[in-house]
Write a structure and sequence with these properties.
434 Repressor (Amino-terminal Domain), about 50% helix
Length: about 120
């Protein structure tokens, strides 16, 4: 890997290795999940605090903290498939419903919502 020396048993290896320029630094990409805004939205709809949501998820077997829920909602923490499934179960919805809509789906939903408003006036 790059210009890193080979490890040899019995010899301490304390060196600074250069990372090849083609490798991405994922810490600088910003968003680490797609469902953060949905988690916040559905949690608020259920009138749950972040602590209450964490406690509910803990009862389902996920050792999660309030801080982890905050990080998910702010999209600074990754969400595994197992965690995604548990979140969907707690919110009583499918995993697909937690994921953001594509551009076309979102526009169609927005249009349908506007039609409903016009029709009710």
């Amino acid at each position: 890997m790059g210009n890193c020396p080979q490890f040899k048993p019995g010899i301490p290896l304390i060196v600074k290795c250069e990372i090849p320029h083609k490798m991405k630094n994922y810490r600088n990409l910003g968003q680490r999940n797609l469902i953060g805004p949905s988690v916040r939205k559905f949690r608020n709809e259920l009138a749950l605090s972040q602590s209450a949501l964490a406690a509910t998820l803990q009862r389902k077997g996920w050792n999660v903290s309030r801080d982890a829920i905050a990080s998910i909602e702010s999209q600074t923490r990754r969400v595994s498939d197992f965690e995604l499934i548990l979140l969907a179960q707690v919110f009583k919805m499918t995993v697909q419903e937690l994921l953001p809509k594509s551009g076309l789906e979102a526009k169609a939903l927005e249009f349908a919502t506007r039609l409903e408003r016009v029709g009710s006036n």
